[in-house]
Write a structure and sequence with these properties.
With about 240 residues, this protein is α/β, with parallel strands linked by helices. The chain has a single domain, classed as Zn-dependent exopeptidases (Aminopeptidase, 3-Layer(aba) Sandwich). It has a seven-stranded mixed β-sheet, with helices on both faces. Strand 4 and strand 5 form a beta hairpin. Helix 4 packs across helix 6. It is globular and about 50 Å long.
Amino acid sequence: MENRQTVETLAGAGATVLLCEHAGHDVPLPLQIDPRLLASHRGYDIGIAWVTRKMAALLDGPAVLCLHSRLLCDVNRKFGQADCIPAVVDGQELPFNRALSDDALAERRRLYDAYHRAVDRCVDASPFAQQLISLHSFTPVLGEQRREMELGLLYDRWPERAARLARILSDLGFIVAHNAPYSGAEGKYIYSVWRAGRRANLPYLEIEIRQDLIADQQAAEAVAERLVEALEKLGLNIP
């Protein structure tokens, strides 16, 4: 494997640790992947890195961003789960993920573990950490389904806290849905923040943002400012 950075860690003394599992679409392995696929939402979460970096700056918050493409291995899934190393996306076969040798599988595992080790180190080195938030983006349309919600809050614990945050975000003008477009139940689709939050015994949730709201850096940073405003109104000393 080439010696290329696959994880970006931002230092900070704030109480909120930000995780961004699909920040980039780098391919640090000797693989040939269609650039159009890499540049699509299947390759990474469009716009979310801008949101994460802006929020981290405003919150003085620690943050960890995964820079390799989710097509290689999705660090927001449990390793070994079928969609962690996808064989097919949108009906398109991914030959670079089929019949992996032991060495090739070990390379994916190294990428996967590098991110989660970085998260653990970041949380352990953050004495003021009081909550973990994972940031993602979703497509406005999936198949024939138009997604009207602008933000989704994904969680399996602390429902009162999520409900209060949803009300604050709604008051700021966002259309908010609970456990949509995916469910946080049992941690399957929020695995990274679920794992880290339970390990550190800290409240956690995942925020999904519709991609058309953060399609360029200026728009993404404007959304980040509103999310930070919401988190500041939410506060920390509630269930």
